TrEMBL record:
Residue ranges that the Swiss-Prot or TrEMBL entry lists as coiled coil: none
MF annotations from Gene Ontology: fatty acyl-CoA hydrolase activity
Keyword set, alphabetical order: Hydrolase
Organism listed in the record: Paracoccus isoporae
Short name of one Pfam family: 4HBT_2
Keyword rRNA-binding in annotation: no
Keyword check for Hydrolase: yes
Protein name: Acyl-CoA thioester hydrolase
Length: 129
């Protein structure tokens, strides 16, 4: 499981002083990018050399408890299921051990023509381990 830290800034909050709901999607997006980077995958190189990119196909999100200005949070990312052309992830946003937000995210592997493509075998192996 990959863990990535994030701090809540004033710009992340709404009029009520809590993190605006869409910002959780930004947090998990950044954490996914860092997870892929930590696995040793260079997404720019993958696109340039193989024409492959990842796109979010589906997100199921549960907002469980609010985060507020200056909270120190962490985002976890864990591969749940890898198929030939999709990656299903479980992601959470936590304050300490308390889960504030939980999501299931399905990524599709797309070619330069934006049509589904199979994950290269080595990439599927790296992401599933």
């Amino acid at each position: 499981m990959h863990r990535w830290p994030v701090r809540v800034y004033y710009e992340d909050t709404d009029l009520a002083g809590i993190v605006y709901y869409a910002n959780y999607l930004k947090y998990i997006e950044r954490a996914r990018t860092e997870w892929i980077r930590a696995l040793g995958v260079d997404q720019a190189r993958l696109k340039a050399e193989q024409g492959l990119v990842f796109a979010v196909r589906r997100v199921e999100a549960d907002y469980l408890s609010p985060a507020v200005f200056d909270d120190a949070l962490s985002v976890t990312t864990e591969a749940v299921r890898i198929t030939p052309a999709r990656i299903e992830l479980a992601q959470t946003v936590l304050r300490g051990d308390h889960v504030l937000f939980a999501a299931r995210v399905v990524l599709a592997c797309l070619g330069a023509d934006m049509r589904p493509r199979r994950l290269p075998g080595d990439l599927a192996h790296i992401m599933g381990s």
